[in-house]
Amino acid sequence: MKNKRSILIFSLATVFILAACNNTSTHQNHTQHSNGGEQENASAHQEHGKQGQAEHMNHQKHGQEEKITVDTQWSSMIQKADQAGEIRIVIKDKQGKPIPEFKINHEKKLHLIAVSEDLSYFDHLHPEWKGNGEFIVKTQFPIGGKYRLYADFIPQGGSQVIAKHDLDIQGETKNEPLEVEKTWTKAVDGKEITLQGGSNLKANRETQLTFSLKDERTKQPITNLQQYLGAVGHVVIISDDQEQYLHVHPLEEKAQGPDAKFATTFPSKGVYKIWGQFQHQGKVITVSYVVNVVE
């Protein structure tokens, strides 16, 4: 491949936006890519309400829906590892007109999740809104290989959309095997974090995941977690084949620790990686776990 910079423009990703759902139903968006007519199921945000508190889960398809076509155009100036460059996303309606406005969802109009093929690399980005349907973010990737990007957004008046896109980055590659956790306590950035609910998981059954945070040195519970993107924390879950994507919000958004509780439903059996993100003393902490889900 030539070393000069070139703009890679990829096929349109056609995403069906489902009609807005009430807090007690779940919906799954279907992302259909124009390259070869391939259709992908994008397991999206679940939001789930109970009386007296807002509960968030992954939106999955169910019930009545109104299909509104959205075309997502991706372009990238990043060709090789450690090369900083821009990724551009343009979102249009079925008439080819740019989407004029997007709903603010946890303080941002678009969340962009990037993972490597082996799920060893994870990044949660927030592209800058340029108007006229366009978002731009500058980033780079640490090693070569395949990466999958998930654009998570809500067009004004529509419902949750997850658009997927793949990048192939030049450079030395590596492949770290996914191994299901044997212990549920990890030390990250001076914090001792324990995940409860990561074992004995079953597909299509509501599950509660609880992250408990302590100071690694003093073992004292952390009770002053800061709001991160409008909540005590965020959880992203991706299957090992990268077909299932879940972005989960906490049951109690204004909690400050030491526990952060999330409810979700794994849509199918298999191995998944979970990333939990929290903020303490101005620093975002990311902890990950690999789990196995049975039927």
UniProtKB/TrEMBL annotation:
Protein known as: YtkA-like
Region named Disordered: 26-66
Keywords recorded for this protein, A-Z: Signal
Protein origin, superkingdom: Bacteria
Signal peptide residue numbers: 1-20
Ranges in coiled-coil conformation: none
Organism taxonomic ancestry: Bacteria, Bacillati, Bacillota, Bacilli, Bacillales
Bilayer-spanning residue ranges: none
Feature: compositional bias, Polar residues: 26-44
Compositional bias (Basic and acidic residues): 56-66
